[in-house]
């Protein structure tokens, strides 16, 4: 690989547009789309917006934070030559799956240390593909809610969120709402996976969705527990407990 020039803030250099393109890719990967958006990759001048982005990247990679694009900074920028895949979390709202109105809603406070209680629904899997698959997922959500409200007499579906094999997350009671998922621990975040994970196995999409969901809800710093820790049950199944290290 040819050597790269040293680029200092304010410099005008033919290599600057490439450096800025690579920097934008890193920033997007790090969730800094707004910072990336203002970097103009058409100009050869290494201006303030690009310098700010490079400094952020240097900080993330524990380099000297000076905004100078030297050998070490070029090296980390080159990691982005292949456009990174940005993990996407898809959450289907209650409106989207046509949830019934709950009988009551009790708000709670979640913090970075709030525990997560992990379950499986012990139901069948959704079927079909494309739109048919999404409709099947919605039908499962409505069936679970009906069972919980009509048979178990809960105020609403028990869980805060439900993860499908597709990796789509469905909003149950939602963020920071007391659930009915774990006796004595219903103020915690209750996440369920659709299926029976005594026999079914988690796929990569589900694991990624679970991790991203906990981060988005701000509870990733809390410990995650299987339902079996607090009840005489096999829920959420050995395959979930082993895959998630519960």
Question: Based on the structure given, which CATH architecture of the largest domain is correct?
Answer: 3-Layer(aba) Sandwich
CATH homology-level superfamily of the largest domain: Peptidoglycan recognition protein-like
**Spatial strand order of the main sheet:** 1-4-3-5-2-6
Low-pLDDT residue spans: none
Based on DSSP secondary structure assignment, what is the total number of beta strands? 6
Q: What gross morphology would you assign?
A: elongated
Give the helix/strand class.
alpha/beta
CATH structural class of the largest domain:
Alpha Beta
- The share of residues in extended strands comes to 5-15%
Q: Termini distance?
A: 45 Å
The number of helical elements comes to 7
Mean pLDDT: 93
What Rg, in angstroms, do the CA atoms define? 23 Å
Q: Write the H/E string, N to C.
A: HHHHEEHEEEHEH
CATH topology of the largest domain: Lysozyme-like
Number of domains: 2
Helicity range: 25-40%
Assembly classification: single chain
Describe the structure concisely.
With 246 residues, the protein is α/β, with parallel strands linked by helices. The chain is built from seven helices and six strands, in the order H-H-H-H-E-E-H-E-E-E-H-E-H.
Notable traits:
Lysozyme-like; 2 domains; alpha/beta; 6 strands; 246 residues
Describe the SSE topology.
Blueprint: H1 16-29, H2 33-37, H3 48-60, H4 71-77, E1 91-92, E2 116-120, H5 130-151, E3 161-163, E4 169-171, E5 189-193, H6 204-216, E6 224-226, H7 238-244
Parallel strand pairs: 1-4, 2-5, 2-6, 3-5
Antiparallel strand pairs: 3-4
Helix pairs in contact: 1-3
